[in-house]
Amino acid sequence: MPMKIGERSFESRVNKGLDDSYMRETVREAQGRLHTNKAKAEEDLGQWEEWRTLSEEIRSHTLENLDFYLEQLSENVVKNGGHVFFAQTAEEANEYVKEVAAKKEANKIIKSKSMVTEEISMNDALERAGCEVIESDLGEYILQIDDHDPPSHIVAPALHKNKEQIRETFERLKGYDKTSKPEELTQFAREQLRQEFLEADIGITGCNFAVAESGSVALVTNEGNARLATTIPKTQISVMGMERIVPTWEELDVLVSMLCRSAVGQKLTSYVTGLSGPREEGDLDGPEEFHLVIVDNGRSNILGTAFQSALHCIRCAACINVCPIYRHVGGHSYGSIYPGPIGAVLSPLLEGYEDHKDLPYASSLCAACTDACPVKIPLHELLIEHRKVIAEKEKKTSIGERYAMKGFGLAASSPGLFQMAAKTAPYMLSPFSKDGFIEKGPGPLSGWTDVRSFPAPEKERFRDWFKNRKKEDS
Amino acid sequence: MRQGTIQNKESFLNNIAEKLGRERKTSGVERPSYQKQPQWDIMADYTTDQLVDVLKEQCTAIHTDVRETNIDGLAAVIDNVMKEYGAEKASIWDDPRFVEYGLAPFVERPDVNIWGSAPDEDDIKITEQADVGITFSDYTLAESGTVVLMNGGGKGQSVSLLPTYYIALIPLSTIVPRMSQVNKKIHEEAKAGHRVPSCINFISGPSNSADIELNLVVGVHGPVRACYILIDDR
Amino acid sequence: MKVSLFITCLGDVFYPGVGKDMVELLERHGCEIDFPENQTCCGQPAYNSGYHKDTKKAAKHMINTFEHANAVVTPSGSCAAMLKEYPQLLEDEPKWKEKAEALAEKTYELTQFLYRVLHVTNTGAFLEAKATYHTSCHMTRLLGEKEAPFQLLSNVKGLQLKDLPNKQNCCGFGGTFAVKMTSISEQMVDEKVNHVEETEADILIGADSGCLMNIGGRMNRKNKPIKVMHIAQVLNSREA
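^ Those are the sequences you sent over. The predicted structure of the assembly is below.
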């Protein structure tokens, strides 16, 4: 279960998150800043809704014709002199990468940030095969040295840690002796990692977008680590989720524009790098060997279903950055490397409901995510769709709830029953009422009254008032 | 050229087609004529001077120094910037534009290494030890303050990456509104069946990270400081 | 103009005062009020919980109940948005889908109806108070109505309207979410209450009784001296 983090129950993870005031403060501030930055980027760009419409159209066209574009991509990679491996499963992908490492007799592998390699636990597989794997993204590096703490955010993986915790980790495990200033911490990581880059045998990257028409892989970064990983090592392996593809460089422009703005509010990140195969004749840097691993790992099961638009995701984390649930419980509470609204949609699709059945309910359906998504994935609707599958297909909801809903359907379609329920409510609840409020409610109402007062029903319902008023009039 | 390989393609793509509920598509897919294309409206009618203003303003946002000069003043400006940065050793592209823009004496200096000229192909090592990397910009994007480098051959990708500082020489003739114009050109090249350069960089200022509490720190794995020198070559 | 009122469950049983104000308000602006007695619930509790077969029963009943109406007006952005969800819910049943579309087209939230159909910007209301307005999620994001309440409130005489910080944030209600994920919901509503307090408002106004019940219930529990009013009550306030 590679995406899944830990064995604790959803409730205990949430409680742990809610109790972590450090983490919550950091996340709250980060969300505020990211929200402001994105809003400004949208305004600067102008015509944001048109950009979203275009982006959605690009994504849905590409997914509808995914087999065609993947074939075009793979043929063009080969034309450029690269190798393509289609991996149906995580195991197949990891086996292939291990084989390449073995063939190259690689000891040291440097990685730039990649969610799909997290998803398939590639580091673990390589380490078990005897390779040293070094994460070079600053956030991933922090997590890796801190005993492989899992990421809590798909763009800023170490968001849950504050600088003091990071200083302490560096000091304890790497002999760091300076302050918790981010500048000094960052400088330290630069020094530590530069040598690793120069010595690495293989560079592994993810893939923000592959470009079908030219067999290219586009990497969108700020730190420069993905550039280093693809400039110095003699062998480069890029791993992509099979849906991360665009037809041409023109679509790449649009989606990169949206990704940078939605993720961090930048017009472009410091580095957008388009890599097309290994180095050419006469080049003195760049990899001599280039491998592209295209990963399915459950994605194809989403095609042709009501959830297909979830594959439109460009991993910008805009939905995570506006989600109130994420703000209060943090990324680890989701128990998956994909947190937030998109994680709550994707995790059950990729790994099944068994381990992730609570996630679709971790939403007030406020639709802030849907509003924020640059490619218009109807995230809150997909969460409802999950609930529908759980309730009606998997039948995994409680018997009590199922009966209650059946009763509801019955009552809501027969006015007599409905009115009887409405009429009796005041009597049923009257023993609990005081000064117009209910402080401690019975049954399911207790979830409400543990936290809030509940209004006591009025003696005269609206419909009675209206009827009486009409009578008086006539 | 070396020939690449493909593995497992048929079963993988057949499965996708099946899940999409149709036959495999191997030809005949055309991109839709997108209803909305707002990217072409942006700064569509801007003059070079207006684009330069946009670029300069964006540079303040991306922590990038800007100098303005013409061909005659270029050598002196480079010297000044290097002095300001405390940089001595430079690594530069093997690019005829250095001579065209009057930098022949600069190129000749002993502490200037031209990419590809190091003995035993030690260019990466030398460049890694250089204080500053200097390249020309092939295209420059006003909106995002971006220099676009079409790497390859004498234009090593290490030059803009490994040294502590980076200087981009930007002839005003390279400025376009945004990424759209450049990507359109690359698309047309690809469509014509030409190979796209194996590494194209879009660089917008120095490297940076916000991974620690979202505090922006300038200078991570790439250059810690960047300067754009705008050259009026009109 | 004849207007059919959809009072909503909360409006019927818990907040009948809101409905009374709404009736007076609409009548003052020339509407004749029709109240179809057979109306029940929009079906949202079942819909959001994933019980769509059960929701369809409610939806079909509501479609029939309001078939005769010229316009359906309701004091809830959320319930209005749910009625507009019916065409998608009944997508597989073409005949019903068509009827659902007809209902969706003539359904309005109260302020939306006043502002966009009746073109009212000033209801002649008077309320001397410092207040802030909670923009409910479903009203702004699903119904897409971000303007009408503010237009109408800006012309209430004596009302000093303070901007609610982070007004885009959910209050933590979310229907069954509030009872299923109580601990998270509690943090969300606390955050909202804090923001309301920051405005130093005496009154919190909203257009969705669900949110008001949640925020008001929490403020009551924490003994905050802030009054909660539905926008219908504010727009129908008169000089004493």
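Residues 69 and 122 of chain C are 26 Å apart (CA to CA). Chain C has two domains: 2-115, 121-235.

Shout if you want it in another format.
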